Every structure is written in structure tokens, then in C-alpha cells.
Amino acid sequence: MPVQVSEFSWQQTPAAVFLSLPLRGVSVRDADVFCGESYLKVNFPPFLFEVFLYAPIDDGSSRAKIGNDMILFTLYKKEPVMWETLSLPSVDKEMMQRIREKSILQAQEKAKEATEAKSAAKREDQRYALGVMMKIEEEERKKIEEMKEKERKKATRELEAWKESQRQAEEPARIPRKETCHPGKQAEERGALKPPSLPRKAPPARLPERGRNWENIFSEKLKEDSIPAPRSAGSIQISFTPRVFPTALRESQVAEEEEWLHKQAEARRAMSTDLPEFCDLKEEEKNPDWLKEKGNKLFATENYLAAVDAYNLAIRLNRKIPLLYLNRAACHLKLRNLHKAIEDSSKAIELLTPPVSDNANARMKAHVRRGTAFCQLELYVEGLQDYEAALRIDPANAVVQNDAEKIRNIIQGTALKSHD
Predict the structure, then answer these.
(1) DSSP 13
(2) Torsion of CA 403, 405, 407, 410, to 10 degrees
(3) CA-to-CA distance for 130 and 177, rounded, in angstroms?
(4) Backbone φ and ψ of 241, nearest 5°
(5) pLDDT average, residue stretch 322-345
(6) Which phi and psi angles does 16 have, rounded to 5°?
(7) Alpha-carbon 230 to chain mean position
(8) Residue 392 is inside which H or E element, if any?
(9) 309, 285, 289, 286: which is closest to 298 by C-alpha?
(10) How many Å is the Cα radius of gyration of the chain?
(11) SS3 220
(12) Are strands 3-4 and 47-52 parallel, antiparallel or unpaired?
């Protein structure tokens, strides 16, 4: 049972009360101070000091200074009046208990309000950071669009100038070609321009006698007229229909793919936007896909902390989308938060089930990122296991093959040093 302390001194002014309490040789680290509007307690085992104040004080602005085996309290009054005594007179046990409970409830409510205010300020800071990043990206996008438009106009002007120069260079070559036309062709053109005349009845001509050369009278003319023009060169594009062999039922993954599609649909429906902490968010900020794209853009600009904040908010909205954990693991790798990268990669692998072709690339990336984190923690055996799992998914990946071989060499080198 604690020993009640009755040795203290106090002074007052109309605005404040100054209380001095000796610690009696107890360490400063062991002193526990609680202050409410009408209740003050100091617990420094085995001693206990408590006082039920005569009038309410402003516990938010009141101060306590500990040092030199002494605690000095500066308690600011809510009403500037002089107190008759420091504590309430004639306080029974029930009233003491009520004052204690009321003070504790008030302290809890104030702590809750402070926590909510801090959370609101943090959300506002995050929203402001996202707004600033969006504004910066919008300005960058406008600059890029303007540069593209300038380059397009410049290329158009250069192309028009080149066409004009080509047209001017071809003009002198066209004029002599018109002057050197064949006279026979000109006559044919003039004849073609004459209006057609009515046919006249020609006098009966004397047919040549049938002889040895009768069939070849116009043979030379017929040969010239019957020669066709040369064909123009060209190419024929042929496209073949891919041949698809039916998969045997025992090797088919139809059931797994249907299960994966079902899990994806359920993940899209598993939203938590009705929580109080999301009431102040905009509509686009309540969309995990929008937040994921936002995090991807921040990651591309090497703003990894802001990208982690975007992925955190998206995960709080929907905890069943594996790509959110996978992308956050990449951010943690860049920030050297290796244990968090391992946790996020493991969570992504857990959500990427059943293993089908649609999620093969994501599973391979998850194993590689977890293996990278293990290797950076010098856990090369665990890292090699993840790299080998990635190679089982994508055996033709040359980068993963090279990294796995480097890890094997490191493990073998470590084993050789231990034998030596």
C-alpha cells in the first residue's frame, strides 16, 4: 500500500497556483504525474501524492518541472480568484472516486481528440502532397505536350520546304519533255480531238488474190499491236491462320483459371470506403486502381515515400489486390526497408493463387523481389530459393538466370572459405 505524502508547499496568485513537492530521494524516472481539471496525482513508489483541487484549472496550459529531487507545478486557474485552500474541504470517499473517474474520462477524451486531430492533419498533409505531385505532373505533361507540338510544327515546316524544293527541281525537267514529243503522236492527238464524221460508203475494193503470202498481209502490224505492256512489280502478303492444338483435359487449367477470375472479381468488390477515416477523401482517392497508377507515377519519378503512401491508402481501401503489395515491395527495396519488402512480396505470393498463366509474370516478380531482399540481408540460401522459383515460372529469363548464378557463386565461395 503506498504511503500518502503530506509534506508540500504552495503559493497562489489570482491567475495561478505554484505547488512544490519533494521526491524524498526517489529517482526522477520513477515519478508518474497525472493532472486533470480538478485532480492532481503524483505516484513515485512507494509514495503517493494526490489532491482534489479547490477549483478547476486549465490542465492544457499548466506545467510541471522535475529536477533536483523536486517537482514544481504551475497550475493556471480557469477563474482568476483567490482560493481559500488548495484542496476541497470535507471530501468523502465516494466523491473522491467520482472525481478520479471523471478526470480519467476527460483525459481519455482529450487524448482521443488529439489522436484524431493528428490523424486528420496527417491525412490533410497526404492529400496536399498528392495534390502538389498531381499539379507538378500536370505542368510537366503540359510542357511535354508543348514541346511535342513545337517539334511537330517544325517537322511540318521542314517537310513542306523539302516538297517545295523538290517541286522546283522537277519543273525544268518537265518542260523539255513536252517540247520533244513525237510528231506522229501529236498528229494522233490532233486526230483524236477532231469531231467524228459520218461513215461513208466506200467503193468495193478488189480483194487480193489468194496466194502464198495472203495470210501475212498485216502480220507485222498485228504482231506490234498484240504485244502486251510489261507487268508492274508487286508483292503479295500471305497470312497463315495459327494452328491451335486442343489441350488434353487432364492437362487443362480451366478450373484454376476460373477460380483466379472469381478471386479477382471478389477482390474488386472488397472495398472499405464506408469507414469514417475515408469520408473526407475525394471520389478518385477512393479508387484503388487510381491510387495504384498514382503510386506507379511517383515511383517512376523516384519519389518512393509518396508512392508508399499512395499504396498504403489503396491497401487500406482494398486488401485483396496483389499488385498493390507487389508494387509497395519494390518501393521498400528502393528505400532499403528489406523486412517490409519481404512481407509485401510474401503477401503478394499468397494472393496470387491459384498459379495460372495470367498471374505468372506477377508471381515471378514477387519471387525475384523477395529473393533480392533476402540477398541484401545476406540470406543467400533463401534468396536462391526464390530465384529458382522464379526460374520455374519463366525459365527463359536471362536476367534471372544470371542473378541466380551469381548467388550460387557467392554461396559456394562462402562454403569454400568456411572449409579453409
Answers:
(1) -
(2) -140
(3) 69
(4) -70, 125
(5) 93
(6) -150, 165
(7) 62
(8) helix 380-393
(9) 309
(10) 46
(11) helix
(12) parallel
* 159: helix, strand or coil: helix
Please answer whether residues 17 and 46 qualify as being in contact, where contact means their C-beta atoms are separated by less than 8 angstroms. Answer: no
- How confident is the prediction for the chain on average, in pLDDT? 81
Alpha carbon of 254 to those of 179, 266, 384: distances in Å? 76, 18, 31
- Under DSSP, the state recorded for 92 is -
Question: Euclidean distance between the first and final Cα of the chain, in Å?
Answer: 65
Q: Can you tell me the distance from the alpha carbon of 49 to that of 2, in angstroms, rounded to the nearest whole number?
A: 9
Residues 6 or more apart from 116 whose CB is under 8 A from it? none
Q: What share of the chain is helix, strand, coil (3-state, %, to 5)?
A: 60, 10, 30
Q: Are strands 47-52 and 70-76 parallel, antiparallel or unpaired?
A: unpaired
**87-117 confidence digits (pLDDT tens):** 888 878 888 888 888 888 888 888 898 899 9
CA angle 346, 359, 338 (to 5 degrees): 25
Cα dihedral 405, 407, 409, 415 in deg (nearest 10): -150
Of 305, 340, 295, the C-alpha closest to 134 is: 295
Cis before 46? omega within 30? yes
| Tens digits of residue pLDDT in 256-267 | 778 888 777 777
Structure confidence by residue, pLDDT tens digits, 183-219: 555 555 555 445 554 455 445 545 444 455 544 545 5
Amino acid at 316: R
Q: What is the pLDDT of residue 220?
A: 54
Residue 195 half-sphere exposure toward CB, CA atoms < 13 A? 2
Q: Residues with Cβ < 8 Å from 85, sequence gap 6 or more?
A: 54
**At 178, is the pLDDT very low, low, confident or very high (cuts 50, 70, 90)?**
very low
Cell of 66: 522535475
The 3-class secondary structure across 320-358, one letter per residue, is: CCHHHHHHHHHHHHHHCCHHHHHHHHHHHHHHCCCCCHH
pLDDT digits (tens, 9 = 90+) for 121-151: 999 899 899 989 999 999 999 999 999 999 9
> Cβ contacts of residue 162 below 8 Å, gap of 6+?
none
Report which of residues 15 and 188 the model is more confident about: 15
Give the CA distances from residue 395 to residues 369, 371, 387, 390, in Å, rounded to whole numbers and listed in that order.
17, 16, 11, 8
Q: Span 51-75, mean pLDDT?
A: 86
Name the more confident of 255 and 272.
255
